[in-house]
Amino acid sequence: MAARPAAGRRAIEVLLETELPRAEGRRLVLVDAVWAGGEEEREFTVKVGDTTRRVHVSDHDSPLGIAEAWRRHTTDTDRAGDSVLVVTGKVPADQLSWDLRGHAVRRRPLAVERADIVKQLFGAGDLDTRMVRETWLLDALLEAEPPGGWPQVGSVLTRDRAMRALLAARVGLGDTRDDSLDLDADTLFDWTRTPAGPRRYAELPEQERAGLAAWLEEVTGPAAPTLLALAADGRGSDALPLGALAATALTCQSAADAGFALGTLFGRALGSFDALAPYATAATGVLSRWIAQAEAGGSAGADARARVLTVLDRADQLAETAHLTGLLAGNRLLPSGYRTRLRTLAAALDGRPEPAQAALRDLADHQLALLHADSTERARTAVRLLRWLCAPQPTLDAVGTSVRHHLESTGWVDLATGILAEGDASRDSEVGEAYHRLIGRVRDRRRQLDEQFAAALAVWAERASPQAPHGALLIEDVLAEVAAPLAREGGRPLVLVLDGMSADVAVELAAGLDRRAWTEIVPTATADRRAGRLAAVAMLPTLTKISRASLLSGTPVEGGQDVERAGFTTFWKKRRREAVLFHKGGYEGTAGHRLAPELLGALADEKKIVGVVVNTIDDALADGRENGRARWRIGDIAKLPDLLGAALGAGRPVLLVSDHGHVLDRGPRDTGPTVVDGVQGARWRIGPAGPGEVELSGPRVRAGGGRITAAWRDDLRYTARQAGYHGGASLAEVTVPVLAFVPSGSEIPAGWTALPAERTAPEWWLGGSDPTEPQEPAPAPRARGTRKQQPQSEGLFPQPGHSTLGEQTVRSKPFETQREFVRNAPTNTAVAAALDALLEAGGKLSPAAVAAAAQAATGKSERNPQRFVTMLERLLNIDGYPVLQLVESGRTVHLDRELLRQQFPEGTPL
């Protein structure tokens, strides 16, 4: 005898909703099925037309039982009512009396056709034929119908649509009314991290779980069975961590031992070890995509980062419980592997740079390197300092070259030391102690340089004067030698004085400027001076009231804001220019204004020179900053972004300059001041010099009757503790950064040239060559039209010659033809040099660097790098093919070598 079909409450409801409207007055329904619902489901109501009827379900296995149930229903239970009795059971129709059948709807037992019911529920004309054989699926669809009913699908209910609807209703995977969800490994692993999904899956009947698992394996891949087995086992939240752990274990050197431990972690959820590899592959694919999202940044990136770290931290916990941590040391995925690699790098900092650089490459190769960007960058900074320590050090015997070298190199050392001093985000004691030792070695070397500089400063100060600066740029000459040239031919520079800005602050601020908006410029090289950033020498002692007043007046003077305003106006009046100077309180806007209307009006004036003094850095030396950071970015300095934006809008060049630098207090907090006589300030006094001090006298000394004693050691102070100090004779305090910028796309003033971003950092910072080898200085620009006959590798940029691809390109027939259609095109020599420089750099350089390469080859200043690049695009991008283009929002020039070869085939070497 064939097994009787089963019917639950929902199947009965649909059957009644279909039959009762056509069986007016009948109250007995015989159903050819056994009851599959619970006891609590035997009483319910159904909607029949405009009325609601109560229903009672009774299950019987004998004809007498059925007859007795009907009698009780009509005489005792609901004698005069219209409630319906539904009888289920195993009694064949031929054993029922005709009298009983006469009271029943259709006078016979009604068959429960689940397929027809499912079609009706989904509003479908037909079913996928495969569904008819999958009774578990039909039963599940009947049982899982959501409160609002199943979506109406139209002509055919496909198996895939039914499976998706069932997954959404049963376990929350997707939406019952929307089948657009991409079901893949990412979706499944993401689902395992929901609070209820895996639990609901575990509660499903075994046959239904098996059917769903088989279908998901077809759709999402071989990882599904293991993942769902973990969910069924109550460990769905560990599905992705276990996958990450498996991926790491299977690639370690002791994979066999690790695989055994993994078996204990997976337990019965792992069907076989053959299933482990595809499961691990799927998990790492998901994590790799999440890591890429995290690296992209933004709010979505922050969410992705949190997900990745939560999963991988749990994987590390699981590894520890299975005693796998030792086997997986140094892995590329887990946080423990990142920590191991970071500790390896830290241990290498006590030796030569080469092992540390190898350890840095391993650290950067870890998949979490960018997610732990602060730690990775701090480690890179540590290796940079190690390279600097192991590189040959200069002898600082001339003040002018010393302050320039400080801006170009040792100021970067101070920046790196500040970065490292903040400590690593991991708070790992081994790493922190290694950084502490490295900082100690760096400070010892820096003090040697400060001592050399102090000795040179003492000799220089006795005889230096505006008439005889002995190779140094004096602070009182900055306006005349730097600002005034920017003001020629109607130029209107904004002179921004950042009080207390030392070299380390200046180089970081310059690096933070948007290169799409600003181009840094420096004076064109001469026979006795190479092109580079300018650094001036502060007045002594290095105090605001002396150095800033001298800077803004253009002559040695002492005084406050009134003296500075009068001196600034007088200086420019002598040059027949109007000028106005704004101090703190004068340029900030009132409520509703970012900047004062008076300042904005002055910046809009076509004739007026504008100066602004910003005290944020100097003010922070007294009490420090709330975030405890020693570094400064543009957004950290009050109103600086607004001032730069206003200058950009007005088309003004910007001269960013300081009046003196500062040293930070990095000593223990319980260290008191040095007790000495004649104290005049935090870093200077009157009296004989002691250890760490130098006596200074001469025309440059504007206090103490022309003779003072100043501290050159960075840890020496005479007053109460502050965050930082100035007034002393260290390189950081005496060096005055002088940086100039013009709006990108505007003409570079005559006598100036663009400074490529690639040429701002010292070699040891970039790490492009062996730090133990002395570096060749950059060659001075040659006279117009001359050609340098030397190997490519000896210059800063490759020089065009008969063997270079750039030179062959400009001699090719397609290039010659294209050149006829481009007016005012740069010379072939300039184009060849630019191409060779890009090829040498791997196809990417800043616009300023490309223009500098052309200038070095021709001796002709390219005063508008953006326009020069635009001309290159017109010459090279034949038929619209992007051989050369600006990318990264205009910050980078990209040369496609393969397209260059295709478009200019005659220019390709054989």
Supply the key terms.
single chain, 910 residues, alpha/beta, 9-stranded mixed β-sheet, 5-stranded mixed β-sheet, 35 helices, 26 strands, elongated
Please describe the topology of this protein.
Layout: E1 6-7, H1 9-19, E2 28-32, E3 34-35, E4 43-48, E5 51-60, H2 63-77, E6 84-89, H3 98-103, E7 110-111, H4 114-122, E8 124-127, H5 129-133, H6 135-143, E9 154-157, H7 159-171, H8 185-192, H9 197-202, H10 206-220, H11 224-232, H12 239-250, H13 255-266, H14 276-296, H15 298-321, H16 335-348, H17 353-365, H18 373-390, H19 399-421, H20 429-463, E10 473-474, H21 478-486, E11 494-498, H22 503-512, E12 518-523, E13 534-537, H23 544-553, H24 561-574, E14 579-582, H25 597-604, E15 609-614, H26 616-623, H27 640-649, E16 654-657, E17 663-664, E18 684-685, E19 693-697, E20 707-711, E21 724-725, H28 731-734, E22 735-743, E23 752-754, H29 763-766, H30 805-810, H31 813-819, H32 828-840, E24 844-845, H33 847-858, H34 865-876, E25 884-887, E26 892-895, H35 897-903
Parallel strand pairs: 1-3, 2-6, 2-7, 5-6, 8-9, 10-13, 11-15, 11-16, 14-15
Antiparallel strand pairs: 4-5, 12-22, 12-23, 13-22, 16-22, 17-21, 18-20, 19-20, 24-26, 25-26
